[in-house]
User: What shape does this take?
Amino acid sequence: MPRLPALLLACCLIPAVPAAEAPAADSLYRRLGGEAGMAAIAGGLIDRSASDPATRRSFAKVDIPRLKKLLAEQFCQLSGGPCRYSGDSMKQVHAGLGIDEAEFYGMVAHLREVLDARGAAQADKNALLALLAPMRRDVVDKP
Assistant: This one.
């Protein structure tokens, strides 16, 4: 029997990386519209926040298309979707921006408006907000 080259043998011994699991049919990710829903929610939130005088200050020097993409990834991952957030930590992203409570809660209000406009159920709005709430401590610099 001919010997297999060492590289081929080594490749056969490496454990397979499991494929990303499909989100459950009843996941928050699916209830909020899947990949397209995450992109629409993130896009709507950023559009509202970047244009509102009460919240736009911290968006002045931001790559908006990149931010929308990363936020959609984050929403997708948090809500049980197949995405993996590829951005920096919330603490790193918001360091030095001087975001205060009013700006933070202004964005929360924008998120609620976007979810309302998409017809999201109250339970789903609450579930997404509950997933995002712990990030407040890494976003707000000024009480």
User: Anything to note?
Assistant: The CA atoms of residues 50 and 62 lie 10 Å apart. The chain is about 55% helix and 0% strand. Residues 1-19 have pLDDT under 50 and may be disordered. The first helix runs from residue 6 to 13.
